[in-house]
Amino acid sequence: MAxxxxxxAAAENSESTPSENVNEPVNPPAETAVSTPAEQGEGKPExxxxxxxxxxxxxxxxxxxxxxxxxxRLLRSNKFQQMQIKFDEKPADNHLDMLRDNGWTWRNQExxxxxxxxxxxxxxxxxxxxxLFREIGNAIRAExxxxxxxxxxx
Length: 154
Known about the structure:
alpha+beta, 22% strand, 7 strands, 4 helices, 154 residues, two-stranded antiparallel ribbon, five-stranded antiparallel β-sheet
């Protein structure tokens, strides 16, 4: 198999130092993964596939009048099968109570509120999360004298 010119040049220019551990495994970047022959079907050549960043942003609401104001973000993690809400600054207790009352859990390590996607109807869990997200975001904006960003039920 022929190597491309860039790979050949990089290999020729690389020098090993005694402190390098040559037995360490080389992992591909987090955004890429190589599929196995079983995933591709027998007889097909191995292909690189790109994965979406996880969790990925679904929606964001500015909580102030300017673009550099704090935000509330709605994220979805396919890896953990959950929706996430992240605040740039801690909201009032009544907004946190809304999250708790609707089954959301605080994950201190990630600094994010999460709820698991229902295995039978993931779309419903996401739709409910989007509705609550907008409800909380618009309530915070109203407390600051700002217009709602999106009408609920729209």
